[in-house]
């Protein structure tokens, strides 16, 4: 289903109103039954992740089984981050996921999908700016860009800073996410207002299969964690479909979880990207306080063609005329942060290095590409960068 | 009070035994009364920060007032990090603070002082290695080093990697912290075993006042947050006492909180260090998952004398013979991470830049030092490093 243009979410947005009214929550449902000695009952908020006025990710302690309950994402067992809730603004359920928006005490509005924090007003800059400008500043003059997911609009807002860009396709599966974000995250959903944006509501796998080969200069996968609806987005067939849709020398930026928590997942994704892309493949990371372990990683991949050196932006943001046109200054990204994002702690380097050593032994199983360079990973002692190019 | 040598904590260590036995906790005290629908009562752990088997920082929801209670450190209101508790190993109270050690499900053993996580087995490397090697790799051949705080021994362990070092003084106010860490954090407290270590148990302000002027090549302040016993350690008189104890060209590394949460505090500390040190002053940061917002910052300051360029290690860890002698490989720090630690996100740069602009106007109030360069902050567009040198 294609929604036609970026501005047509208003009818759906109207339907979502009224759900966030605190008054509608009384009398309190069982999910808000409070701990005996918590704060007064009247301060309780109405959601089963919110207890005594605090939202906690990713567990609900008040489910039917009276046990700690995980949502569909037990990716960080043994730890949880909590945010104090001022007011629940919205809760609803789409065909794909549960959506919660609340106003927090110190991080502004918070978007939660299936119990997992996706973004907050305070720290969204770190994620949105990095996931966008790491790929787009690494190629000389991006023209056609695709966003997979990204229904909040933040990545669109960041792409719009690049005046070389001619078309911005976005394929988001969940119309409700778009509508809810237009209502509660205007500083992100402003990204939909750019006239270059074409919104496609539907499954990204189908969308990419139907895209012309070699269409895009850059594809940015801005999805939720790879369990649930986003699982297919880290698997090999999808990555191959992405590679097919990229121009020669085109780039992919895909989410790649936390270096502190998910090395095995990063290794799997590196393996797939390493096999699929014939250009360079790199892991980068940044600080995002409300994500588990306080960091999020990215896999930057280039298709064979004009070589891409992700480590040194050839299209530095400081020189892009459109960079501050979007009405808001950059808050996190700059060219130095770009370079620093690829520098890895020793334990990460070691874990990914040993992975690559193992992977290299299975290299013979793959058909040789005459154009591609050796895919063996290199650790350069002096610049300490992990690279597959 | 001086404890004589690094090995004499055994008597005190013996006294602490037995307190961590889970069996001694039954029947459950009121602090462990559970939420109605939490996990079974038998899984409860005995500490007022531990509810339904989870430790939560920095609030207790089960205090006498039935309200959210902060310890003495309300430095990150509105958010909390929780760790699942396998077993409480120790709880006690020294004249200075409350001490809790527990075994977590996924971060190993955890040290908590006054309700605040100080370190975990899993991520201590990021903090201990950075706070130590950022200063020691920035000067050619450190000989005399002082640690303020650091009773867990981790910084000592890291200093010991530097074979140029001849003496390592440590001034920790709380003997109980030392004893507890010897019991439950052997991989950190092994730092006390190095024959170069001299332990002084007492107040660091007194200790430094009695130190010869110009004694140390480097001083590392490894304290708790600057509220409570550690408050004096970020104030001007103490920083001046530190500067006095440093050799010309000597360096200080002081904790400087989170760039996401405590910009005002960082500004205050920058101001004090900027006024006190006549060499370079820099802010650096690193990722530590169990610290609030997932990051911790450092202030690196050099006394006038031989110029110190913190940004490029002149004493790179990769070339230090003793770097792997301590029996354990580095897990986090390397020379590239050193350089990247000084790269700041745009919002941090902006907030500290505007601070420096204001601060520069009060520059005239200070007596001029003929040796010192201009103290005005510079933002270099190309390398984006904030510097006061």
UniProtKB/TrEMBL annotation, chains A, B:
Residues 52-303 form the PABS domain. Pfam families: Spermine_synt_N, Spermine_synth. One of its GO terms (molecular function) is spermidine synthase activity. The keyword Transferase applies. GO terms for biological process: spermidine biosynthetic process. Keywords: Polyamine biosynthesis, Transferase. Residues 1-14 have a biased composition (Low complexity). CDD domains: AdoMet_MTases (cd02440). GO terms for cellular component: cytosol. Residues 1-21 are annotated as: Disordered. The active site is at 222 (proton acceptor). InterPro entries: PABS, PABS_CS, SAM-dependent_MTases_sf, Spermi_synthase, Spermi_synthase_euk, Spermidine_synt_N, Spermidine_synt_N_sf. NCBIfam families: PRK00811.1, speE. Belongs to the spermidine/spermine synthase family. This is PABS domain-containing protein. It comes from Panicum hallii.
């Amino acid at each position: 289903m294609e929604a036609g243009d970026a501005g047509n979410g208003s009818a759906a947005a109207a339907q979502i109103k009224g759900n966030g009214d605190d008054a509608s929550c009384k009398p309190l449902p069982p999910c808000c039954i409070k701990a005996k000695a918590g704060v007064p009952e009247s301060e309780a908020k109405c959601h089963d992740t919110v207890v005594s006025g605090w939202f906690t990710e990713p567990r609900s302690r008040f489910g039917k089984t009276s046990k700690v309950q995980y949502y569909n994402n037990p990716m960080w067992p043994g730890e949880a981050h909590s945010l104090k809730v001022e007011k629940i603004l919205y809760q609803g359920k789409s065909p794909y996921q549960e959506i919660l928006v609340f106003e927090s005490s110190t991080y502004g509005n918070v978007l939660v999908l299936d119990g997992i924090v996706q973004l907050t007003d305070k720290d969204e800059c770190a994620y949105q700016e990095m996931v966008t400008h790491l790929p787009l500043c690494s190629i000389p003059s991006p023209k056609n860009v695709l966003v997979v997911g990204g229904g909040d609009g933040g990545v669109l807002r960041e792409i719009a800073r690049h005046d070389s860009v001619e078309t911005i396709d976005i394929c988001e599966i969940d119309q409700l996410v778009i509508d809810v974000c237009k209502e509660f995250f205007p500083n992100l959903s402003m990204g939909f207002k750019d006239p270059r944006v074409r919104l496609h509501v539907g499954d990204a796998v189908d969308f990419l299969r139907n895209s012309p080969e070699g269409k895009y200069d850059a594809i940015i996968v801005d999805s939720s964690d790879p369990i649930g609806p986003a699982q297919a987005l880290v698997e090999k067939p999808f990555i191959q479909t992405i590679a097919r849709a990229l121009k020669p020398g085109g780039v992919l930026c895909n989410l790649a979880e936390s270096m502190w928590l998910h090395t095995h997942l990063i290794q799997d994704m590196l393996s797939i990207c390493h096999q699929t892309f014939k250009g360079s493949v790199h892991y980068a990371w940044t600080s995002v306080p409300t994500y588990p372990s306080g960091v999020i990683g990215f896999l930057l991949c280039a298709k064979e063609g004009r070589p891409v050196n992700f480590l040194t932006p050839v299209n530095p943001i400081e020189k892009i005329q459109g960079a501050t046109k979007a009405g808001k200054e950059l808050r996190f990204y700059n060219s130095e942060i770009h370079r620093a994002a690829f520098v890895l702690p020793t334990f990460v380097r070691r874990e990914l290095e040993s992975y690559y050593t193992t992977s290299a032994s299975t290299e013979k199983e793959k058909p040789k590409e005459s154009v591609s360079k050796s895919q063996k990973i290199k650790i350069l002692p002096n610049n300490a960068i992990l690279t597959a190019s």
